[in-house]
Amino acid sequence: MSKSISIFECSKCGAQQPKWTGRCLECGNWGTIAEGVKNAEVSRTVNSGTVREITDLSKLQNKDLQRASTSLNELDRVLGGGLVQGSLVLLGGDPGIGKSTLALQIAAQLENSIYISGEESAEQVAQRLQRLSATHSVSFIAETNLDNILSTLHKTKPVVAIIDSIQTIYSNEVSGEAGNISQVRASTIKLLELAKTANITIIIVGHVTKEGVVAGPKTLEHLVDTVLYLEGDKYQQYRLLRAVKNRFGQTGEVGIWEMTNNGLKEVLNPSEIFLKAHKNVSGTVITPVIEGSQVFMVEVQALVNKTSFGYPRRIASGFANQRLEIILAVLTKKLKLPLNNYDVYINIAGGLNLTEPAVDLAVATAIISAYYDQAFT
């Protein structure tokens, strides 16, 4: 017995809601809500399913996870010792930040890996592979149909499969174009099922939206085992790989990389890199930063100028603007600095994006130094 239910669905993100609105409550787009009919099966009996085998977890407590080393020490450390067999890993970041380069480097370091691209041809990927120090050959297919991808992986059974990117993959079972939330969610669920049943490690690459999340509002993060974000300024050479979520290792661990002509290169001594151009001038302060298990030194730069606008400008690169406003309010109130008449600019050298609260002291000190135009000795 079936019952028809009227629903309203967003054609952009796939969100469903019980009544019509001019604007989607999920993605905020206007004019994308359309009425549809959903058939709900009403059953008066208990559904019969397959009885599954029950596992005694106490017998598995001393069994170590099987991991595959990527031969990239910084990546292995961020992952907690390597890629866990049968895990689903999300690699996210802004367009052009180096996600595809890192993904291809991983494939080139592992035996029996396959690289699946929905954005580039075999010739384009092969050209990028020439710049990398490939230890093993890389199998490649250009495909965007999820069913074809699943069939290929079932047949070849690679140790690691990399899909670049999840926004280009579509399933015939789901309506909507590739890249919308419904397609992304359905594709990820199918890939997760394959990873667990076939014991294949799958890395999916996802682009970060303008809201700062991968493929929509937290669409994928709760589905996958590990979430890695590649951060930094694409116009500078340094990148920060951060483990936002990790079921098999420490959350918050970071690795530092340098983008070169030959791909991403691991930075073993971050302090030396970030301070190599440091000069002891006004407005600059050196501060220690803790990122994951690493401690390194960075340079905080401040510039204070008399404003020529009705409202002074506060601009920060690599530091939160809201925190900068609080620091300026404290300095104005407690130290009687007339900063409401000055433009204030903050920059974290190296293109890093710092969130540690301890950096607030360094920012305040750099502002004071810039205001009085005196360097700290």
UniProtKB/TrEMBL annotation:
GO terms for biological process: recombinational repair. Residues 64-208 form the RecA family profile domain. SMART domains: AAA (SM00382). Pfam families: AAA_25, Zn_ribbon_LapB. One of its GO terms (molecular function) is hydrolase activity. The keyword DNA-binding applies. GO terms for cellular component: cytosol. PROSITE patterns: RECA_2. Keywords: ATP-binding, DNA damage, DNA repair, DNA-binding, Hydrolase, Metal-binding, Nucleotide-binding, Stress response, Zinc, Zinc-finger. CDD domains: RadA_SMS_N. SUPFAM superfamilies: P-loop containing nucleoside triphosphate hydrolases (SSF52540), Ribosomal protein S5 domain 2-like (SSF54211). It comes from the Bacteria. DNA-dependent ATPase involved in processing of recombination intermediates, plays a role in repairing DNA breaks. Stimulates the branch migration of RecA-mediated strand transfer reactions, allowing the 3' invading strand to extend heteroduplex DNA faster. Binds ssDNA in the presence of ADP but not other nucleotides, has ATPase activity that is stimulated by ssDNA and various branched DNA structures, but inhibited by SSB. Does not have RecA's homology-searching function. PANTHER family: DNA REPAIR PROTEIN RADA (PTHR32472), DNA REPAIR PROTEIN RADA-LIKE PROTEIN (PTHR32472:SF10). Belongs to the RecA family. RadA subfamily. This is DNA repair protein RadA.
